[in-house]
TrEMBL record, chain A:
Its EC number is 1.8.7.1. It is an enzyme of class 1 (oxidoreductase). Siroheme binds at C688. NCBIfam families: nitri_red_nirB, PRK14989.1. The keyword 4Fe-4S applies. This is assimilatory sulfite reductase (ferredoxin). Binds 1 siroheme per subunit. Binds 1 [4Fe-4S] cluster per subunit. Residues 321-388 form the NADH-rubredoxin oxidoreductase C-terminal domain. Residues 830-854 are annotated as: Disordered. Pathway: Nitrogen metabolism; nitrate reduction (assimilation).
TrEMBL record, chain B:
This is Assimilatory nitrite reductase (NAD(P)H) small subunit. The lineage of its organism: Bacteria, Bacillati, Actinomycetota, Actinomycetes, Propionibacteriales. Residues 13-117 form the Rieske domain. It holds the Pfam family Rieske_2. Keywords: 2Fe-2S, Iron, Iron-sulfur, Metal-binding, Nitrate assimilation, Oxidoreductase. The keyword Isomerase does not apply. One of its GO terms (molecular function) is oxidoreductase activity, acting on paired donors, with incorporation or reduction of molecular oxygen. One of its GO terms (biological process) is nitrate assimilation. The keyword Protease does not apply. It comes from the Bacteria.
Length: 854, 125
C-alpha cells in the first residue's frame, strides 16, 4: 500500500474526550484508513478528571486512562507536553509549540474548558489557584502544607469538591458563593439548605450570598479574602471555582464560527463551520450550547468517529443529570430539577434529623389519567437515583404512590417496569435492552451484575447506576424463574461469607456441628474444604488434626501437590526468594537422593516433583532438619512474596525490597484464605518483582511504599490497583493485615482478590473506606485477628513429623505399607524422571505376600 | 508386575481395623494384588471400590473426600476423585457425573472382631 492512500487525522487535546475519541477510532477501525496524531498540552496522558480529587489519595498513576502511556495501535502517535498553537483551514496544517507543522485531512478539536477566574484585584497573587488539572492539585497541596486557612470561591459542584479537598489537606475551609444557595444549578433552595447543613456539620464554613471584592495581599502572597458587606476572611490559599469557559481560542483565531456564549459552534454531527474541522467535549457547543459533563463529550466523540466512517450518528443533546458524593453527602439532580415545566408538581420528602431532602417533579400525563416523572433532587440519600433517572428519560407512568420511590429505603426498592429503551447508564449510553441482551444471550450469558458491567460498560464510569443494573439483572432472573442462588452447594444454603459468620458466632470447631446446625446431608468436596479453610482461618489448628483431616482438599490432605500420576510435588518455603548456598545444596541433595524432577517456579522457589505419597515424610524430615518449612504450595493460602534484589545491591533501588518481602512472607505464611494469595515487593518504580500482578504488591517510593491490591496473573490477568501511597512500613503492614482479613472474611469460595473487590458495592473505593478510613470501625478487630494468626503460626510439616497419628496415613497400602503402588511409573526426559503413561489398572497378582495388620 | 488375573472371589483379605479408617475417610489396600479403596461413612458403613480413577487414569480414589449427594431425593454416599472431582457412588461405583463411567466394587464387611474384610469384585466394568 502506498503511504499516499493513508490520510492523517490530528486531534488537539488529550483529555478525557480526546482519549475516548482515539479509543473509539481504534475500536471501530478508523485507524485502518487514518494515521492519528494526538497532541496534548499537559505532560501527562489523559487521566480521569472526574475523579481528580482522589489524586490526593491515590496519586497520578491510578487516575491515568492510558496507563502504558501509549496506544496499542501503532498508527496512533501521541505527542504530549506540546500545545497546538494554531491551525490554518486553508492549507490544512496545524502548528505545534515546538515549531512542528503537520498536514491534516481531518482535525478534531478536543481542547476542553478552563476555569473562569473573575478579574477581582489580586486574583493572580501567589496562593491563588484553579482546580482543573493534576498540576493544579500538586500546587495546591504544596501551598496547603504551609497554610492554615483556605477559601474556595464558588459553591457549585466543583467548588464543593475543591472545598472537600482543602479540608482533607487539613485547612480550615470556607466556601464563598454569590448565589443565595449552594449548587444553585442542580438543586433548589430547600435542597441547598440541607446540603449546607451537612457541610457545616463537617466543619466547613459556608458563606452564601457573598460577593468577593478583592484578594488581599500580604508579603507578596495571598493574605485574606475581602467580601462586600462581610468581614474579610484571613486565608493563605484561594481556589477559584466560579465556572468554566470553553477553550475555543484555536477556532476563533482560525476564523471559525463560535457560539454566542463561547464554545466552538458545531452541528449535530459535531462539524464546525469548516467541513474538515470537528469539535467535541467541553470546547464544543452543539447547537450553541456547551455541556460541562463528560458523558455528552463521550457521545460527541462517538458521533465524530461515526461521521468519519460514513455513519449516520448525531448528537441531539444530553442528559445533564448528576449524582455525586460530596464530603460523604450524596447529592443528585436529574431532569427538570427546578420544576420549570408548565403544570409541574413537586413532591417533597424531608427528614431534618437524618438530613435527607428528596424532591420529585411530576407532571400529569397527556391522557390525564396518571403522572410521569420529569425530574428531581436528592440530598443526603441518593440511593433511588439509579431507578429514578431512567424513568425520566423513558416517560413511563408512575406507580399509584410515587412517594414510595423516595421514602426511606426500608420499604425496599419499589417495583417499576422500565421500558427496554430506557438508558440506564448515561455515561456509556447503555439501555435496559442491552443489559437484558447480556444476561440472556445464547453463548455464556452473564450471570450477575458484575459481569454485565464488564461486558456492557454499564456502571463502569461513575458507578451511580450500579444499583439499577443489579436490580434489572436480578429482576430478569426472577422473571425467568431462576433464583439467583448464592448457596455454597446443596448442603448449605449460605454463601461462604455467611458461613464464616455462622461459624464465628457459634464458635464451631467441627464440621459435624456446622452441617447439623445449618446444613443438610453429609457435605461434599465443595463445602468440606470451605469449612476446613474457615476453621483454619479462625482457629489456627493443624489441617491434619482429627476433626479437620477428612475435610481437606486433595493437596491439603497430604500437605503436597498431587500430580497427574498420583505422585506429589514438594515445595519448601524460600521467603522472598533468598536462599543460602548451604540450603540450596540440601534441596539438590534431596532431589537427587529421591530422584525428583526439579524445576524453578515463577514464585522464586523450587518445586520437586515425583514423590510417592509414602516418601513425603522422609523427604520432609530431611528438609525440616536443614531448616526448611512448608511452602504451602498445596494450600489456599499465602504462596510467596516475590521480590527484586532491592536497594541492598541494585543501583536503582530505593528501599530494601528483599527485607520487606521476607518479613511479609513470614508474617502471612500459613494464612488460610478463600483462594491462593500471592504478594510481591519491588524496590523501585521499575517494578522488577512484577508486584502489580499479585494479590498484594508493594512498590518502593522515595518516601516509603505504595500499596497495590487485587491483581493476579493467570488466565484473566489483572493489574493490582493503588490502595494507598507513600506509607511507612508500620502503616503498610497495618493496612495489609486489614485488607487480607477483610478479604478472608467476606470473599466467596475460590474468589481471588480482584473479583472480590469488583463484587463489593463501591469496589476499590469501598475497600479503601474499610481498610484505610476504617469507616466500619473494624480496623482493630481485623488487626487482632491477624495478630492471632501470626502468633499461632507453626510449621505444619514439622508438626506432622512429630505426630505418629498424622504420619500413619502416609502409606501406599494400609495392609502393605512396604509395597509401592504399581500404578506409578516414570520415564526419563532431558535427564530427569517424569510420569509414565498409565495403561489402566495394574495388578501385582496374588503372589505378593501381604502383611497382616498389626 | 504380572498381568491381571481374575481375582479369586472366594479369597477374603483382612485389610485393617475399622478404626484405622477415619470416619468419612478412605484407605488404599492391596487385595489379591489389586489396589482397592476402602471407605467408611458417617454411619459406619464400609464400601470398597477400585482405587483406580478411570477419569484421571491414576490410582487415587482412596484419597478423595467422602460425602453425600442428593440424587432424586436419596442421600447417596459418594467419593469425589481427588484429581478432577468426579463423584462416584460408593455403593455401585457409578460415576455420578458421567453415566458411561463406572469403577468396580468389591465385597466388603466388618467382622465381629472389628476387622475390615475385602472379598472379590461384585461388579465389573
Ligand atoms: C474536579 C472536577 C470534577 C468533575 N466532576 C465531574 C463529574 O462528576 N461528572 C462529570 O460528568 N464531569 C465532571 N467534571 C467535568 C469533566 O472532567 C469534563 O467534562 C471532561 O474532562 C471534559 O473532557 P474534555 O476532553 O472535553 O476536556 P479535558 O478533559 O479538559 O481535556 C482537554 C485537554 O486538552 C488540552 N488542551 C487544551 N488546549 C490545548 C491545545 N491548544 N493544544 C493541546 N492540548 C490542549 C488540555 O490541557 C486538556 O488536557 C469534573 C471536572 C473537574 C475539574
Amino acid at each position: 500500500m502506498s503511504p499516499k492512500t493513508r490520510k492523517t487525522l490530528v486531534v488537539a487535546g488529550h483529555g478525557m474526550v480526546g482519549h475516548r475519541f482515539v479509543q473509539a477510532a481504534i475500536e471501530r477501525g478508523l485507524t485502518e484508513t487514518y494515521d492519528v496524531i494526538v497532541v496534548g498540552e499537559e505532560s501527562r496522558a489523559a487521566y480521569d478528571r472526574v475523579a481528580l480529587t482522589s489524586f490526593f489519595e491515590v496519586g497520578a498513576d491510578e487516575l491515568s486512562l492510558l496507563p502504558g502511556g501509549q496506544y496499542d495501535d501503532p498508527r496512533v502517535r501521541l505527542v504530549l507536553d506540546t500545545a497546538v498553537e494554531g491551525f490554518d483551514p486553508e492549507t490544512r496544517t496545524v502548528l505545534l509549540a515546538g515549531g512542528e507543522v503537520i498536514s491534516y485531512d481531518e482535525l478534531v478539536l478536543a481542547t476542553g474548558a478552563s476555569p473562569f477566574v473573575p478579574p477581582v484585584p489580586g486574583h493572580d497573587l501567589p496562593g491563588c489557584f484553579v482546580y482543573r488539572t493534576i498540576d493544579d492539585l500538586e500546587a495546591i497541596r504544596e501551598a496547603a502544607a504551609g497554610a492554615r486557612v483556605g477559601v474556595v470561591i464558588g459553591g457549585g459542584l466543583l467548588g464543593l469538591e475543591a472545598a472537600n479537598a482543602l479540608a482533607q489537606l487539613g485547612l480550615e475551609t470556607h466556601v464563598v458563593e454569590m448565589a443565595p444557595r449552594l449548587m444553585a444549578v442542580q438543586v433548589d433552595a430547600a435542597g441547598g439548605a440541607t446540603l449546607a447543613r451537612h457541610i457545616e456539620k463537617l466543619g466547613l464554613k459556608v458563606h452564601t450570598g457573598a460577593m468577593t471584592s478583592e484578594v488581599v495581599e500580604k508579603d507578596g502572597r495571598v493574605g485574606a479574602l475581602a467580601l462586600k458587606d462581610e468581614e474579610p476572611i484571613p486565608a493563605e490559599v484561594v481556589v477559584f471555582s466560579a465556572g468554566i469557559r470553553p477553550r475555543d481560542t484555536l477556532a476563533r483565531e482560525a476564523g471559525l464560527d463560535l457560539a454566542e456564549r463561547g464554545g466552538v459552534l458545531v452541528d449535530e454531527r459535531c462539524r464546525t463551520s469548516d467541513p474538515h474541522v470537528w469539535a467535541i467535549g467541553e470546547c464544543a457547543a452543539p447547537g450553541g450550547r456547551m455541556y460541562g459533563l463528560v458523558a455528552p463529550g463521550y457521545a460527541m466523540a462517538e458521533v465524530v468517529v461515526d461521521a468519519l466512517l460514513g455513519g449516520p450518528g448525531e448528537f441531539t443533546g444530553a442528559d445533564m443529570s448528576t449524582k455525586l458524593k460530596l464530603l460523604g453527602v450524596d447529592v443528585a439532580s436529574f431532569g427538570d430539577a427546578h420544576a420549570t415545566t408548565v403544570g409541574a408538581l413537586e413532591l417533597v420528602f424531608a427528614d431534618a434529623v437524618a438530613g435527607h431532602y428528596k424532591k420529585l417533579v411530576v407532571l400529569e400525563n397527556e391522557a390525564g389519567d396518571g403522572t410521569v416523572l420529569i425530574g428531581g433532587v436528592l440530598v443526603g440519600d441518593a440511593s433511588a437515583y439509579g431507578v429514578l433517572r431512567p424513568m425520566v428519560a423513558s416517560g413511563i407512568e408512575l406507580p399509584a404512590n410515587p412517594e414510595d420511590l423516595i421514602l426511606p429505603a426500608s420499604r425496599g426498592v419499589p417495583e417499576i417496569g422500565l421500558p427496554d429503551e430506557a438508558v440506564v447508564c448515561s455515561c456509556n449510553n447503555v439501555t435496559k435492552a442491552t443489559i437484558l441482551e447480556h444476561v440472556s444471550r445464547e453463548e455464556t450469558p452473564c450471570t450477575d451484575a458484575t459481569c454485565v458491567t464488564k461486558c456492557s460498560g454499564a456502571g463502569s464510569t461513575c458507578g451511580s447506576c450500579k444499583a439499577g443494573v443489579k436490580k434489572i439483572v436480578e429482576d430478569h432472573f426472577a422473571s425467568v424463574g431462576k433464583v439467583v442462588d448464592r448457596s455454597l452447594c446443596e448442603h448449605f444454603p449460605l454463601t461462604r461469607q455467611e458461613l464464616f459468620d455462622v461459624i464465628a458466632v457459634h464458635g464451631y470447631t467441627r464440621f459435624d456441628d456446622v452441617v447439623e446446625g445449618h446444613g443438610r446431608g453429609r457435605g461434599c468436596d465443595i463445602c468440606k474444604p470451605t469449612v476446613a479453610s474457615i476453621l483454619a482461618s479462625q482457629l489456627n489448628g493443624h489441617v491434619l488434626d482429627a476433626a479437620a483431616r477428612t475435610l481437606q482438599d486433595t493437596n491439603d490432605a497430604y500437605l503436597a501437590n498431587i500430580q497427574r500420576n498420583g505422585t506429589y510435588s514438594v515445595v519448601p518455603r524460600i521467603p522472598g526468594g533468598e536462599i543460602t548456598p548451604e540450603k540450596l545444596i540440601v534441596i539438590g541433595e534431596v532431589a537427587r537422593d529421591f530422584d525428583l524432577y526439579t524445576k524453578i517456579t515463577g514464585g522464586q522457589r523450587i518445586d520437586l516433583f515425583g514423590s510417592r505419597m509414602e516418601q513425603l515424610p522422609q523427604i520432609w524430615q530431611r528438609l525440616v532438619d536443614a531448616g526448611f518449612e512448608s511452602g504451602h504450595a498445596y494450600g489456599k493460602s499465602l504462596r510467596t512474596v516475590k521480590s527484586c534484589v532491592g536497594s541492598t545491591w541494585c543501583r536503582y533501588g530505593v528501599q530494601d525490597s528483599v527485607g520487606l518481602a521476607i518479613a511479609l512472607e513470614l508474617r502471612y505464611r500459613g494464612l488460610r484464605s478463600p483462594h491462593k494469595l500471592k504478594g510481591g515487593v519491588s524496590g523501585c518504580a521499575r517494578e522488577c518483582a512484577e508486584a502489580r500482578s499479585k494479590d498484594f504488591g508493594v512498590i518502593a517510593t522515595e518516601k516509603g511504599w505504595n500499596l497495590f491490591v487485587a491483581g493476579n496473573g493467570g488466565a484473566a490477568p489483572v493489574h493490582a490497583r493503588l490502595l494507598a501511597g507513600d506509607l511507612d512500613t508500620e502503616t503498610l503492614v497495618r493496612y495489609l493485615d486489614r485488607f487480607l482479613m477483610y478479604y478472608i472474611r467476606t470473599a466467596d469460595r475460590l474468589q481471588r482478590t480482584a473479583p472480590w473487590v469488583d463484587s463489593l458495592e463501591g469496589g476499590l473505593e469501598r475497600v479503601r473506606e474499610v481498610v484505610v478510613d476504617d469507616v466500619l470501625g473494624l480496623g482493630s478487630e481485623l488487626e487482632a485477628a491477624m495478630a492471632s494468626h501470626v502468633e499461632g503460626y507453626f510449621d505444619e510439616w514439622a508438626a506432622t513429623l512429630e505426630d505418629p497419628d498424622k504420619l500413619a496415613r502416609f502409606v501406599s497400602f494400609v495392609n502393605a505399607p512396604d509395597t509401592p503402588d504399581p500404578h506409578i511409573t516414570f520415564r526419563e526426559e532431558r535427564d530427569q524422571a517424569v510420569p509414565g503413561d498409565s495403561a489402566g489398572p495394574v495388578s501385582l497378582g496374588a503372589s505378593i505376600p501381604v502383611g497382616a495388620p498389626q | 508386575m504380572t498381568a491381571s488375573a481374575e481375582p479369586d472371589s472366594r479369597v477374603t483379605t483382612v485389610v485393617c481395623r475399622l478404626t484405622d479408617i477415619e470416619v468419612e475417610g478412605g484407605v488404599a489396600a492391596l487385595v489379591v494384588g489389586e489396589a482397592v479403596a476402602v471407605f467408611r461413612t458417617y454411619d459406619d458403613h464400609v464400601f470398597a471400590l477400585s482405587n483406580y480413577d478411570p477419569c484421571s487414569r491414576a490410582s487415587v480414589l482412596a484419597r478423595g473426600i467422602v460425602g453425600t449427594r442428593d440424587v432424586d431425593g436419596t442421600q447417596v454416599p459418594f467419593v469425589a476423585s481427588p484429581m478432577h472431582k468426579q463423584a462416584f457412588d460408593l455403593r455401585t461405583g457409578q460415576c455420578l457425573d458421567d453415566a458411561a463411567v463406572q469403577v468396580p466394587t468389591y465385597d466388603v464387611r466388618v467382622g465381629d472382631d472389628g476387622m475390615v474384610l475385602v472379598g472379590g469384585r461384585t461388579s465389573s466394568s
